[in-house]
Structures are given as structure tokens and as C-alpha cells.
Design goal:
mainly beta; 4-stranded antiparallel β-sheet; 10% helix; globular; disordered N terminus
């Protein structure tokens, strides 16, 4: 009986059933691993750009689709400079009209704290748990004067007002309060951290200086006068290798090149009214947004020879690479648009409509740009 044809067929059937069951079980165990891997494939779609708009709030652009997906109400007027924390959980936005920064939860878009920092805050840089915010206490309303001109309001203003030193507010983000100030020059603009993180480098447009300060004590380390090269220093950037600093001179139509000890080694001619400036991530090229010329200019970082000029829009001040370094996002305030530029072809490939005077742009994950510097 045990070796009969019927018994053998029965044993064979049972073995086949067991084999099928084993294969099914193995497939079932693999399913959760497949599901867990799915988010990793989608993670590039999570990259975003944050764009401040002076007449509204902050727009969030999905970098996978180049579409605006959210708008954050900053609960104040005049958003300008902005920076994202290293973990991407908070966005710090300078709001000009109330002299504060709004700290925004990026997951919910809600303002979790407003912190007073000083009159006319402009640039924001974040280092660890601290935000550094420049200000312009003596700035006048309206467009800046042309070279050699005095503002019409000067007839009624005390000349001493022009010399009010600005304060760079140091904000402890974990405490949610301003803990100290660093005294800069009148109308501080751009902020940069030195390569070793021990110094803060500031452009001061009203007295045509770049000043270098001890980041812990605020003590002035060095003052670099720019007038002989050009007036109104605006953008400031350190090279990825830490050996060079660049400062744009808006009324000089140049950028100034300094060595690691902040000695001026040369200037480079640009188109009219340069503002935002940045290196690419490899430190091979320098990008300069020239406002009145309506160009993004590209220079070789070693020879300083001009590589190309990319026609852009109106009042384009600040820009950022995307985290994959494939595109550049340029905020053009009076065009109500963010221009998307192919970083290799150096051609405009798209425009994202961003109304209400776009001012600045940063991304998360963080990328190189005129408002950010990623090592």
C-alpha cells in the first residue's frame, strides 16, 4: 500500500503543495521590504524651494514639478531674507515692517514665534541653533540714489542719521529670543561666515566697507574700505575651499576679490549693478546677478574670465542652485517670477510665476546660492 501508485501520487501532490506554500510565504515576506523602499525612490520629489515675497509671504515650490504647492503667511509685512535650519524643520524669515523675524514650522506652515531683532531686518543666515540677522536702521524708503546723488529726503534729515551703526542680531532659535548683538557699519547688507566659522563677514552699504568680526564676541577684527574700487557693497561669499572672499560693489559694477586674510587682490568688472553672488558647489564658477543689466553673469573662478551672460528679468537679486545642482532658481522681483536656469547649458528653461515681488530663495535640502553657502 505505501508504495502503491496511488500513495506515490499522493506524496507527490503533498510535496508540490508544500513547495507552492513555501514560495508564497517567501514572496509575502518580501512585500514589506518593497513597501519600505518606496519612500527612498520618492525622496527627490521632497526637495523644495522657499521664496520670500516682499508684498506677501513665502511661496513653497516643489522642485520635482517646479510648481507652487504652498504659501506661508509670515504674520507680518515685508518678508525679505530667509534661511532654513539644518534639519529643515524651521524657516527663519526677516520681516521688515515690524523689525522681527518669523520662525515658521515648515511641516505645518505656521509661525511658531516672532522675535524682535531691530529696524529694517534684511539678510538671515543660520549656523546651528543660531540665526544672524542684518539690519538697516538708517535706510530710507524708496529706491537707492544713483551714484553721486543725494536722496531728496536728505534736506529734512539729520546727517547723523546716516551714520547710525547697524546691529546684527544673534537669535537663539532653541530659546526663541535675541541673545546679543554685533555692531556693524551703517546699513548692513550681506552676511557670510568665515571658512573656519570663527568670524562673521558683513557688507555695509552706507559707508562702503566690509567688516570682519569675531563671531563669539562681536569684536571688530578688520575693516576693508571699498570706495576706491566701488561703492555700496552688497553680496558677500566665501569660496568652497575657504581661500577667497567675493563682495559685489553695486555702484562700482564690479566684484571685489579678497584672499583668506581679507586683503583685496583684484576686482572683476561686471554688468550694471551687481547684487547676489555665489560659487557653484565645486568652486569652479562664479555667478553674479546684475540687477539693471538683467543678466546672470558666469565667470571662471580661477581666471575670472567671463564664461557667459544669461538674459533674465527685472530686479533679479537673489538665486540658489537646486539641491542636485542641475538648475539655478533666480528670484526676479519686478517680473513676478522665479527664472529656472539650466546650470550646465546656462539657459533659461522655465519661469515659475511668483507674484508680490519675489526677493530671496533658498532650498531644502540646502544648496549653494546668494543667501546660502553649503560646504
Amino acid at each position: 500500500m505505501l508504495n502503491s501508485p496511488l500513495a506515490r501520487r499522493t506524496r507527490m501532490s503533498l510535496l508540490l503543495l508544500a513547495l507552492v506554500a513555501t514560495v508564497a510565504a517567501c514572496n509575502k515576506q518580501e512585500e514589506p521590504a518593497t513597501e519600505a523602499a518606496a519612500p527612498a525612490a520618492e525622496s527627490p520629489a521632497g526637495a523644495v524651494a522657499y521664496v520670500s515675497t516682499q508684498d506677501a509671504g513665502v511661496n513653497v515650490i516643489d522642485l520635482a514639478t517646479m510648481k507652487i504647492t504652498k504659501q506661508f503667511d509670515v504674520k507680518a509685512e515685508g518678508p525679505r531674507g530667509l534661511a532654513v535650519t539644518d534639519d529643515g524643520k524651521q524657516l527663519v524669515v526677516a520681516t521688515r515692517e515690524n523689525g522681527s523675524v518669523s520662525v515658521i514650522d515648515t511641516a505645518t506652515g505656521e509661525v511658531v514665534k516672532q522675535i524682535e531683532v531691530g529696524k529694517n531686518p534684511e539678510f538671515v543666515r543660520v549656523s546651528g541653533n543660531f540665526a544672524f540677522v542684518s539690519s538697516e536702521p538708517s535706510a530710507k524708503a524708496g529706491p537707492p540714489p544713483k551714484p553721486g546723488e543725494k536722496p531728496a529726503e536728505d534736506d529734512d534729515d539729520d546727517d547723523d542719521d546716516e551714520k547710525i551703526p547697524a546691529k546684527i542680531a544673534v537669535v537663539d532659535l532653541s530659546k526663541g529670543e535675541k541673545i546679543r548683538e554685533i555692531t556693524g557699519g551703517p546699513e548692513t547688507e550681506g552676511l557670510e561666515f568665515s571658512a573656519d566659522g570663527k568670524q562673521l563677514v558683513i557688507t555695509n552699504e552706507a559707508d562702503n566697507t566690509v567688516t570682519v568680526h569675531n563671531i563669539e564676541t562681536g569684536e571688530l577684527f578688520k575693516t576693508i574700505a571699498t570706495h576706491e574700487y566701488g561703492d555700496r557693497p552688497r553680496g558677500i561669499k566665501v569660496s568652497p575651499d575657504g581661500n577667497t572672499y567675493l563682495a559685489t560693489l553695486e555702484f562700482g559694477n564690479k566684484f571685489m576679490v579678497m584672499d583668506k586674510d581679507f586683503n583685496v587682490v583684484r576686482t572683476v568688472d561686471t554688468a550694471e549693478t551687481p547684487y547676489g553672488i555665489a560659487y557653484d558647489s565645486k568652486g569652479e564658477r562664479i555667478f553674479v546677478a546684475t540687477n539693471k543689466a538683467k543678466l546672470l553673469q558666469v565667470f571662471d573662478a580661477k581666471s575670472f574670465e567671463k564664461i557667459k551672460e544669461v538674459p533674465t528679468g527685472n530686479r533679479c537679486w537673489h538665486f540658489s542652485f537646486t539641491p542636485d545642482n542641475k538648475n539655478i532658481l533666480l528670484a526676479c522681483g519686478k517680473s513676478d517670477a522665479v527664472f529656472v536656469i539650466d546650470a550646465e547649458k546656462l539657459e533659461v528653461t522655465n519661469q515659475v510665476e511668483v507674484k508680490n515681488m519675489p526677493w530671496g530663495v533658498v532650498t531644502f535640502p540646502k544648496a549653494m546660492g546668494s543667501l546660502e553657502n553649503v560646504k
